[in-house]
Write a structure and sequence with these properties.
alpha+beta; Endonuclease, Chain A; Arc Repressor Mutant, subunit A; eight-stranded mixed sheet; three-stranded antiparallel sheet; globular; Tscrpt_reg_LuxR_C
Length: 345
């Protein structure tokens, strides 16, 4: 039966077939459905969206939509976290191999060097200008941190305008916080259709890819050193990471999804998820691109909204409210402790 259902219903809980959608929706509205109603849609049992009623095995009861949503979002979160961990490990490996590479004589010219260490801002800028001049098709960038400073945007503006003039397409990933920077909005308006931007709660460290042939990543914490990567396997790996993050990101032209919980913003939901993972305030601030002071202000509002008197109690309330994982869409409304339930329909 399981195999038969998988052949006729090749989908997951994130994209139910039309028949499965009807039966599951009916079960949610009515509280349960007869087992015979689910016979044409075995996918609902296989995906654990319906399960037998312990009081009457001839009936099936639904798994709550919020529980299904949490299960799906955890899968997305695990995928993003795994990608970020792999990129972090790769950067450490690049630095180690780059250190070994300095001990041997490398062939002259960029074509003969799979990994080049660029020491100093002048060398980094020169290499970036060279890659910009050679680029003909596409530039992919990841820009971590919060609101982009005017100086940062101005520094690379001449390269961006040169690329636009040659018809090169650009795609940029930022954190959600960057949406509040007027400088970024002005930059995107100036670039027009040449640039498409999306945002995530948090992104990997800075990454710039030209024509999927050369990549630049930081080589130290203050970004006074960089790695220029031309090894096809390494560049292909970084392109894959970018594309997966891009698929999960939200277009800058679209509004951030509502949390579905009164009094809690999308940013506070992101902070709640990081708190649930055990991160300190400074780490949360760095990952979301905000100041520690701002992060603590949001944490204080979370505590007040959730009725938590301590950090320990806040962790419990975060889990109870289903805020211990990131979200891309609006979950079902959650009633917080001490609040009135909305009118049932």
């Amino acid at each position: 039966m399981a195999g038969h259902g998988a052949q006729e219903h090749p989908h997951g809980a994130d994209r139910l077939c039309a028949a499965g959608d009807r039966v599951y929706s009916r079960a949610v509205r009515r509280g349960r459905v007869p087992r015979q109603d689910a016979e044409p849609v075995p996918c609902l049992l296989e995906l654990a969206l319906l399960h037998p009623d312990p009081d009457d095995m001839d009936w099936l009861v639904p798994t709550s939509p919020q529980e299904v949503m949490t299960r799906l979002l955890r899968g997305v979160h695990d995928e993003v976290s795994a990608s970020q961990r792999r990129v972090g490990s790769a950067v450490e490996a690049f630095e180690w191999y780059a250190g070994l590479g300095r001990l041997i004589h490398a062939p002259a010219g960029p074509e003969g060097t799979a990994i080049r260490v660029l020491d100093g801002l002048a060398r980094i800028q020169a290499a970036m200008d060279e890659a910009t001049q050679a680029c003909t098709t596409e530039v992919l960038t990841v820009q971590p941190g919060g609101i982009r400073r005017e100086a940062e945007l101005s520094e690379g503006l001449h390269r961006a305008l040169a690329l636009r003039g040659r018809g090169v397409r650009m795609r940029d990933l930022y954190t959600h916080v960057a949406r509040h920077g007027q400088g970024l909005l002005n930059y995107l308006e100036l670039m027009g259709d040449a640039v498409e931007a999306r945002t995530l709660d948090e992104v990997i460290d800075r990454l710039i890819l030209f024509d999927r042939t050369v990549a630049f990543i930081p080589a130290n914490s203050d970004r006074t050193m960089a790695l220029e990567l031309r090894h096809p396997a390494l560049v292909s790996y970084l392109v894959t990471v970018f594309e997966r993050l891009w698929r999960l990101a939200i277009p800058l032209s679209a509004a951030l999804p509502e949390t579905g919980i009164e009094g809690i913003s999308h940013r506070e939901q992101s902070i709640a998820a990081l708190l649930a993972e055990g991160h300190q305030d400074a780490v949360i601030a760095e990952r979301l691109g905000i100041s520690v002071r701002t992060a603590r202000a949001h944490i204080a509002r979370l505590s007040e909204t959730l009725g938590a008197a301590s950090r320990t109690q806040l962790g419990v309330r975060i889990a109870q409210a289903g805020l211990d994982g990131p979200t891309r869409g609006a979950p079902a409304p959650v009633i917080l402790p001490g609040r009135e339930s909305p009118t049932a329909r």
